[in-house]
Write a structure and sequence with these properties.
Layout (H helix, E strand, L loop, with lengths): L1 E2 L2 E5 L10 E6 L12 E6 L2 E7 L14 H11 L3 E10 L9 E3 L2 E4 L25 H14 L3 E3 L2 E4 L8 H10 L4 E3 L2 H10 L3 E10 L12 H26 L2 E2 L23 H6 L1 H8 L1
Parallel strand pairs: 2-5, 2-6, 6-12, 7-9, 8-10, 10-11
Antiparallel strand pairs: 1-13, 3-4, 4-5, 6-11, 7-12
The structure holds ligand LNRAV4D5 and adenine.
Enzyme class: transferase
Family: Belongs to the PNP/MTAP phosphorylase family. MTAP subfamily.
Subunit structure: Homohexamer. Dimer of a homotrimer.
């Protein structure tokens, strides 16, 4: 049986986690450039953990400039098997209130300036994204949240916008009333898609900070209020993460939903027509099926 290795991507307001045994920040080089920052690697309850701040310590990357491919490659290269992606988000639902967590399970991707795949000319692959998140990981996060007394909603559709500006009121109403989205953020796509290509189980934990701009009683998004809510949310996120090693266990059975076998049958390019340079870049992400 394989070893569980938990990767945590920390979003806005979550730039570190404490309590890791033997923790050290490690620079990880990837063929896709540098990740957002060094990666904090250690153990929690005996289970290896790697923590990567999505925007870098000190929050230097915009949602557009986050090096999503390098981040996912670096986690995979370290041996991570399961990724918890913590993010701030706006809510389109009255009952998903600031302070609540949402276990997002679907996305609508409206981002336009990002590299969305590891594959390309010379190594073409088509991976299913019908169910873009891992239900097994979501079960564990839901249990951890219940144990911590965190209000968590199971399931929700996340509208990924390019940013960095927040939505207009007309966009907010479109996403909520016409498209049926539940929350909005700027970072979970293409991150989730790349994690699937890299055969990582991926579970987004969206922390509600505001009601975006549709709500008649809440007006426009206010970054000061968001940061205040984030501070409380970040402590809850860290408490939740500390429970995960105990819930996931050190021994890892194959994912019952097949996240860790997503590349089976996905690569269409004939072996003799593959671009050796691209195949070399794909060593960590797709070495299992290309080697
Ligand atoms: C702080 S409000 C806007 C900012 O916060 C979210 O980032 P992340 O998903 O990394 O927590 C949102 O997507 C925006 O990038
Ligand atoms: N309303 C909002 N829109 C986009 N990203 C967000 N992150 C937190 N709140 C958000």
């Amino acid at each position: 049986m394989a070893e569980t290795f938990i990767g945590v991507i920390g979003g806005s307001g979550v730039y570190g986690i404490d309590g890791l045994e033997g923790a050290e920040w490690r620079a990880v080089a990837t063929p896709w450039g540098d990740p957002s920052d060094q990666i904090l690697v250690g153990r929690l309850g005996g289970v290896p953990i790697a923590f990567l701040p999505r925007h870098g310590r000190g929050h230097v990357h915009t949602p557009t400039t986050v090096p999503y491919r390098a981040n996912i490659d670096a986690l995979k290269r370290l041996g991570v098997t399961d990724v918890i992606a913590v993010s701030a988000c706006g809510s389109f639902r009255e009952e998903m209130a600031p302070g609540d967590f949402v276990l997002v399970d679907q996305f609508i991707d409206r981002t336009i300036h990002r590299e969305k795949s590891f594959f390309g000319p010379g190594c073409v692959a088509h991976v299913s994204l019908a169910h873009p998140t891992c239900a097994r990981l979501a079960d564990a996060v839901a249990e951890a949240a219940a144990a911590e007394g965190i209000r968590i909603h199971r399931g929700g559709t996340y509208l990924a916008m390019e940013g960095p500006l927040f939505s207009t009121q007309a966009e907010s109403k479109l996403y909520r009333e016409v498209w049926g989205c539940d929350v909005i953020g700027m970072t979970n796509m293409p991150e989730a898609a790349l994690a699937r290509e890299a055969e990582l189980c991926y579970c987004p934990v969206a922390m509600v900070t505001d009601y975006d701009s549709w709500h008649p009683d809440h007006g426009a998004v206010d970054i000061t209020a968001i940061v205040a809510t984030l501070t409380g949310n970040a402590d809850n996120a860290r408490a939740l993460i500390r429970r995960l090693p105990g819930l996931l266990g050190g021994d890892r059975a194959p994912c019952p939903h097949g996240c860790d076998r997503a590349l089976d049958h996905a690569v269409l390019t004939a072996p003799e027509r593959r671009d050796p340079a691209l195949v070399a870049r794909l060593d960590a992400v797709a070495g299992r099926v290309l080697a």
